[in-house]
């Protein structure tokens, strides 16, 4: 489950609608235990920085947010991104969550229309970011804001040009991410970012094997390859996307069962982390993957 924090200052319903559209299990919540149990966390936000921080304090969620953001993928959206920084000067100096170094201040007008509102092209920053997996470099996303972040290049994953460089996507280099734009309102590019975020959540969790048994129909021979296992997966559920879990070798990966990619898997050309997927896996492991994938691991396309 992805927790969308409901603290009275967020564009929560548009984010929830986008997650629903993608078929992702997401829940609006202000419950500490649910946030702690979530696989990933989204912090939306609209309004003014001091007011939003006041709402977070009233909710009693600041401590749990700071703790959980260090353990699992955490995404701040719009004002939610700005709250990730150390402080803001919107109306007054106000302390933020301090999850990313830097501060927030007004966009210098210099003849610009403020608020900055509309579609802008994402330009790559210095920091690498898994949220941009699959991007071509020609994507446009939707902004609505009057203040922007000022941060180090090491935290800058992507930016747009609006009277200068405006941080669009930031990261602490680990689990914390922030999008100044609205992914949920940015068409296919925004949906891809949300998909990538959810995919990230997988590698922070391992399966609970308590009381788990492998259905006999999913067991393969000791020398079976993952290519053969994909056939079993496909026959078992008719799914088009697969999430393969082998924490020892790969962590959590998505395999797209379509066209040339399937041929590449069979030929051993598709090699995340430098390891070909055609290497033999144990029958027990393949059976476990297959069994867990119907339907828990797989997402229908």
Task: Write a structural description.
There is one protein chain. The protein is α/β, with parallel strands linked by helices and 301 residues long. It has 2 domains: 2-204, Rossmann fold; 216-292, no CATH class. It is 28% helix and 25% strand. It is built from 9 helices and 16 strands. The strands form 4 sheets. The chain has an 8-stranded mixed beta sheet. Strand 1, helix 1 and strand 2 (26-29) form a beta-alpha-beta unit. Helix 7 (226-237) packs parallel to helix 9. The longest helix is centred in the middle third of the chain and has 15 residues, at 187-201. The chain is globular, with a radius of gyration of 21 Å. The two termini are 19 Å apart.
The CATH superfamily of the largest domain is Class I glutamine amidotransferase (GATase) domain
Beta fraction: 25-35%
Compute the gyration radius: what is it? 21 Å
- Summed up, the domain count is 2
Alpha carbon gap, first and last residue:
19 Å
- Low-confidence runs of at least 5 consecutive residues: 204-222, 234-283, 289-301
Summing up helix and strand content along with how strands pair, one would put the structural category as alpha/beta
User: Shape, please?
Assistant: globular
Largest sheet: 8 strands, mixed
Q: How is the CATH topology of the largest domain named?
A: Rossmann fold
**Mind telling me the CATH class of the largest domain?**
Alpha Beta
The CATH architecture of the largest domain is 3-Layer(aba) Sandwich
Task: Indicate the percent of residues in helices.
Answer: 25-40%
Strand order of the largest sheet: 2-1-3-4-14-13-12-9
**Topology as a string of helices (H) and strands (E):** EHEHEHHEHEEEEEEEEEEHHEEHH
Quick one: how many beta strands?
16
- Helix count equals 9
User: Mean of the pLDDT scores?
Assistant: 75
């Amino acid at each position: 489950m992805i927790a969308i924090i409901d603290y009275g200052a967020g564009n929560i319903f548009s984010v929830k609608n986008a997650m629903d559209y993608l078929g992702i299990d997401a829940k609006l919540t202000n419950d500490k235990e649910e946030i702690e149990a979530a696989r990933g966390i989204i912090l939306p936000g609209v309004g003014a920085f001091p007011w939003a921080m006041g709402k977070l304090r009233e909710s009693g969620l600041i401590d749990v947010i700071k703790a959980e953001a260090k353990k699992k993928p955490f995404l701040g959206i719009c004002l939610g991104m700005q709250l990730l920084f150390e402080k803001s000067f919107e109306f007054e100096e106000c302390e933020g969550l301090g999850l990313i170094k830097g501060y927030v201040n007004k966009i210098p007008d210099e003849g610009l229309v403020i608020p900055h509102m509309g579609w802008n092209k994402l330009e790559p920053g210095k920091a690498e970011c898994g949220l941009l997996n699959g991007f071509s470099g020609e994507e446009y996303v939707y902004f609505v804001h009057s203040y922007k972040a000022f941060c180090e290049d090491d935290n800058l994953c992507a930016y747009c040009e609006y009277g200068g460089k405006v941080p669009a996507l930031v990261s602490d280099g680990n689990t914390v991410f922030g999008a100044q734009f609205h992914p949920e309102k940015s068409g296919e590019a925004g949906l891809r970012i949300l998909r990538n975020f959810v995919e990230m959540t997988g590698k922070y969790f391992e399966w609970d094997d308590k009381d788990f048994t492998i259905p006999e129909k999913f067991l393969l021979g000791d020398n079976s390859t993952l290519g053969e296992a994909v056939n079993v997966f496909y026959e078992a559920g008719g799914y088009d996307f697969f999430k393969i879990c082998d924490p020892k070798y790969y962590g959590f990966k998505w395999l797209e069962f379509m066209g040339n990619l399937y041929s590449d898997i069979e030929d051993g050309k598709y090699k995340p982390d430098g390891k070909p997927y055609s290497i033999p896996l144990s029958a027990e492991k393949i059976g476990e993957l297959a069994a867990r994938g119907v339907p828990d691991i797989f997402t229908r396309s």
